[in-house]
Amino acid sequence: MKKVYGSAAEALDGLLHDGMLIAAGGFGLCGIPELLIDAVVESGVKDLTVASNNCGVDGFGLGKLLDTKQIKKMMSSYVGENAEFMRQYLSGELELEFNPQGTLAERMRAGGSGIPGFYTKTGVGTVIAEGKEVKNWAGEDYILEEGIFADLSIVKAWKADDTGNLVFRKTARNFNPPAAMCGKVCVVEVEEIVPRGSLDPDHIHLPGIYVHRIIQGEHEKRIEQRTTRKREDA
Amino acid sequence: MPWDRNQMAARAAQELEDGWYVNLGIGIPTLVANYVGDKDITLQSENGMLGMGPFPYEGEEDPDLINAGKQTITELARTSYFDSATSFGMIRGGKIAAAILGAMEVAENGDLANWMIPGKLIKGMGGAMDLVAGVGKVIVVMDHTNKHGDSKVLKACTLPLTGKGVVDRIITNLGVLDVVDGGLKIVETAEGVSAEDLRAATAATIVD
Minimal CA–CA distance to A186: which of A201, A172, A175, A171? Predict the structure, then answer.
């Protein structure tokens, strides 16, 4: 079965519908599926719920989907870098479900692994625990969190072969593997599609079984906080 | 004289033991990396890295290599990368020996508030709730009072909590306090700060 598609729009053809749940990879602007986000914007699909650690910045990444008001609800751990997000949230146009970062990642991993719920200590005694089942093990309280089962996963990897085996690069891996796992369909964008057999099977980060459609493209890879140090004088 | 930011970071670095894997929060906690000396400490960045190196030289920034504060960083010979679920697995699983974090408020029962001011600040908790629930030891580093001069070390937190009963040790510009039964115990004071000064600046119960 052919997994490689010619463009982001082609790769998303037939997969988008209003009101759907999309899981997106990336941390801040690092490792985000830039090309697929642009194609979702172009499609005009609306009332989206998006599970993603962050929501981009104003005018870039998932921030573009805010500008077009295509997002109804975000499931995130941190949304501090986006003025339009705050405006829509405070005016009641946008719903927000805060998830502790590790809980969000585990909810995706669990969903992709057929685990509908798990117990965690994270958030016990905080607003996150409100309305959630509490269970005590060995004197410690844990709360029940649910797996995320997304309609679609959009992720970014460094390299793929044509069967969808993926390799990520440095900290751009982040939420991409768990986000990829939890979708009914997973579309991935990569910097390079390499010939079958050229990736070391022992060094595959995510096996192609999780990947349904692949595109290759150019990425802007914007840096959010450029920090450097001075070279010491020799 | 109360400690300055760097002196607080240096004092916090004394808490770390050789061989530990440690997570440092944003702000003063980040400076702790400058004071670990000869100790073999591996820094975790919760976006998926162990063995965090310093900032890159200008021109060598890599958009695929950032820390949890989204700053460009570098890798070391010992570095490993992994996904976010694995990263928080090691946090939740108690593999990270200590987290050093900033705070808005800490209470005498170890409650910590550092993620939200209702009606004002709604950025999110990021990985803070997972860290305080999972790591071996939670050390808070912060100024003892806020900009109005009010104690940030309280009988009970007023802000939404990050974790309940999670803080082990508090390092402020005035000294070091441990969370013990019945309140806080003074471990030491900054040079020139007396135990009486520390008590006077603290709203929480101090026990002997």
Answer: A175
What residue in B sits closest to A157 (Cα-Cα)?
B64
A224 touching B (Cβ < 8 Å):
yes
Phi first, then psi: what are they for A92, rounded to 5°? 85, 5
Domains of chain A with bracketed CATH: 8-115+147-216 (3.40.1080.10)
Which residue, among B42, B2, B7, B1, has the nearest Cα to B22 in the 3D structure? B42
Confidence of residue A82 (pLDDT cuts 50, 70, 90): confident
State how far the Cα of A79 lies from the Cα of B125, in Å rounded to an integer. 9
Q: Give me chain B's average pLDDT, please.
A: 96
Looking at residue B21, which CATH number applies to its domain? 3.40.1080.10
Respond yes or no: is residue B15 known to be catalytic.
no
Cβ atoms A26, A49 nearer than 8 A: no
pLDDT of residue B207: 96
The C-alpha of A108 sits at a distance from chain B's nearest C-alpha, in angstroms, of: 8
Distance from CA of B90 to the nearest CA of A (A): 10
- Record the tokens describing residue B57, joined without a space: 């030289």
- Please give the tally of structural domains in chain B: 1
How many whole angstroms separate alpha carbon A24 and alpha carbon A37? 9
Q: What is the mean pLDDT of chain A?
A: 96
Residues spanned by the domain of B196: 5-43+96-201
Q: How confident is the model at residue A233 (pLDDT cuts 50, 70, 90)?
A: low
CA angle B125-A54-A52, nearest 5°?
Answer: 105
DSSP, collapsed to helix, strand or coil, labels residue B83 as: coil
Three-state DSSP at B59 gives coil
**Could you tell me which of B157, B159, B155, B160 has the C-alpha nearest to residue B184?**
B155
